[in-house]
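Sample pair:
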Amino acid sequence: MADLDKLVEELGQLSVLEASELVQKLEEAWGVSAAAPVAMAAAAMPATAAEAVEEKTEFDVLVKEAGPKKIEVIKTIRQLTSLGLKEAKELAETPDGKVLEGVGKDAAEDAKKKLEEAGAVVELA
């Protein structure tokens, strides 16, 4: 029987290219594929791990409509952004206008609360 420790030591000295060639030769000689165990291991993972959903960390604050108090909404948009009066007015009048983009959850919820208090219909995306 072969000395396994010596074999492991010799295999450890192979370059990546040589190791790849060795894998190909062993696959041909034994009629197997080295990729099969990897695919089987991935298929054997529990369904709950595969269904894990990452929690969203960045949000966009969208004004769906300004509502009856458009002036208050425009003022709030100006407070939340560095927009001028004209740009804030256009944003308030644009359906699905992005007031804030890629902000954290707390900032997005705070902006949504302020805009809703001003009378706007707001959505976080």
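The CA atoms of residues 62 and 123 lie 5 Å apart.
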